[in-house]
């Protein structure tokens, strides 16, 4: 419950146009300090949980083990973690490409789902809680690679969850 409260507070802050990406190039030590705030840590943890759920616990765990083994007693960049995950997924999913849309954009997407009969349509756009005129920038070009999971009425005991990657503004 406490973690959910932290996530919701971070999402509220991230839904403002004054937010910042989890990862960005820095020019000074002051910018480094600004990057490591509660938003970065909580959003980062949420993104890792999202990825763990999408990849599966076993794939995620194996990726982390490779990452730690490859970079023990050394330094690493975020791309190194994504590369470890790409190694485990054998190129079936470009984790680096997926995650860059989340860590390099500020904010998060709003996904609208519309069902007409048996047809489901999806659309994504940047969610803004409140527009702050002094910090306004157009984010119309933002596009996230959104891992979605769903269950259909054809669910059986061995396979219930399906996955879909929304990597365009809209999809079906």
From TrEMBL:
A single GO molecular function term of this UniProt record: zinc ion binding
Domain (Peptidase M1 membrane alanine aminopeptidase) ranges: 5-102
Keyword Hydrolase: yes
Keyword field contains Nucleotide-binding: no
SUPFAM superfamilies (alphabetical): Metalloproteases ('zincins'), catalytic domain
GO biological process assignments: peptide catabolic process; proteolysis; regulation of blood pressure
InterPro entries named among the record's database cross-references: Peptidase_M1_aminopeptidases, Peptidase_M1_dom, Peptidase_M4/M1_CTD_sf
UniProt keyword annotations, A-Z: Aminopeptidase, Hydrolase, Protease
An annotated GO cellular component: cytoplasm
Annotated transmembrane regions: none
Pfam entry (one): Peptidase_M1
Protein name: LCAP aminopeptidase
């Amino acid at each position: 419950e406490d973690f959910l409260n932290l996530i919701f507070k971070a999402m509220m802050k991230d839904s403002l146009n004054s937010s910042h990406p989890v990862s960005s190039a820095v020019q000074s030590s002051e910018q480094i300090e600004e990057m490591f705030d509660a938003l970065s840590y909580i959003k980062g943890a949420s993104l890792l949980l999202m990825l763990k759920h999408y990849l599966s616990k076993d794939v995620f765990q194996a990726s982390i083990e490779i990452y730690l083994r490859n970079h023990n007693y050394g330094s690493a960049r975020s791309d190194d973690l994504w590369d470890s995950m790409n190694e485990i997924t054998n190129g079936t999913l470009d984790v680096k490409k997926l995650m860059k849309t989340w860590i390099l954009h500020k904010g998060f997407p709003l996904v609208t789902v519309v069902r007409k009969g048996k047809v489901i349509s999806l659309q994504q756009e940047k969610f803004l809680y409140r527009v702050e005129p002094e910090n306004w920038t157009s984010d119309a070009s933002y596009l996230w690679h959104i891992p979605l999971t769903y269950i259909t009425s054809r669910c059986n005991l061995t396979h219930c969850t399906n996955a879909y990657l929304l990597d365009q503004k809209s999809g079906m």
